[in-house]
Automatic annotation (TrEMBL):
SUPFAM superfamilies: Galactose mutarotase-like (SSF74650). This is Aldose 1-epimerase. It holds the Pfam family Aldose_epim. One of its GO terms (biological process) is carbohydrate metabolic process. It comes from the Bacteria.
């Protein structure tokens, strides 16, 4: 496999290509993009939280922290500010690249932090390591994730070994409570739908022209978001459940949120493997 990156555009991966299957991600062709209205292509980092933070505000240590909204409805915050800031290449070699962001508190996030993404390519395997460090002087609630836009395959076969799936709140795409995940591992999803899972280690799908893609969570990424829409499929490893900031003082351990003391770090790793499915198979494994 080969990958193309654009650190200055929010630490993005523009393309992920396989020698036999071509583009696995929806390729991001633009060389000038609006980071406030990001294109649904490539892949980008999710720091210091992922998905929707409702009302652009959350309680923390006895006060209400308000953020600058950036969602289409003008009321919420989506995916954290890191993918809307320029990153720098901090290290690179023939088969790896590391990007770094030194974030300074502003109206999008009132805490200092350092975020690192490290990508390594080996044959049909992409390894990803994420790290978030609180570099400020106060405790910081946080999480992280990775948001790829895979090319959707005409054969919508998706599997995960997740133990639990979150039920959605009425009229919302955000989770409300946990339920035991039943069934054989097949994920039933319709276009425009978002599903949330916990306690998983593997998720697999056919992407692009039929490549069998598998994501394996190694450490620190116990939550999973699957979103399907039009020509793209998002399978997003994350450290916490979406919407977890809404009731931060009462958040349970199931939510996955961390409160990092100054100097403390949060890390996570996962792999993306690609292979050709056996003849006559909809999905390997």
């Amino acid at each position: 496999m080969e990958a193309v990156f654009w650190p200055e555009a929010g630490g993005r991966m523009l393309r992920l290509r396989h020698i036999d299957h071509g583009d696995l991600l929806v390729p991001l062709e633009e060389r000038s993009i609006d980071l406030e209205n990001w294109p649904k292509a490539g892949a980008f980092p999710l720091f210091p939280f992922h998905n929707r933070l409702q009302g652009a505000a959350f309680p923390h240590e006895g006060r209400l922290i308000r953020l600058r909204p950036n969602s289409g409805n003008g009321m919420d915050v989506m995916h954290g500010p890191a993918h809307r800031r320029p990153w720098v290449t901090s290290d690179m070699g023939g088969d790896f690249l590391e990007m770094r962001l030194e974030y300074r508190a502003d109206d999008s996030w009132p805490f200092d932090f350092t975020a690192i993404q490290r990508f390594e390519l080996h044959g049909n395997n992409l390894s990803v390591a994420l790290r978030l460090t609180n570099t400020g002087g106060a405790a910081m609630p946080c999480g992280m994730g990775w948001h790829p836009y895979f090319r959707s395959c005409s054969r919508k076969r998706i599997r995960t070994n997740a133990c639990r799936q979150w039920k959605l709140a009425g009229g919302s795409d955000l989770p409300e409570q946990l339920a035991r995940h039943a069934g054989t591992g097949e994920v039933a999803i319709e276009s425009g739908q978002t599903l949330h899972f916990s306690d998983w280690t593997e998720a697999a799908a056919l992407v692009g022209d039929g490549a069998s893609m598998r994501i394996t969570a190694d450490t620190g990424m116990s939550h999973l978001v699957i979103h399907l829409k039009g020509d793209y499929l998002c399978i997003e490893p994350a450290s916490h459940v979406a919407g977890a900031f809404a009731d931060l003082p009462n958040a349970s351990s199931d939510f996955g949120l961390r409160i990092l003391a100054p100097g403390d770090s949060l890390s996570g790793t996962f792999r993306v493997d690609v292979e050709s499915p056996p003849p006559g198979s909809d999905l390997s494994g």
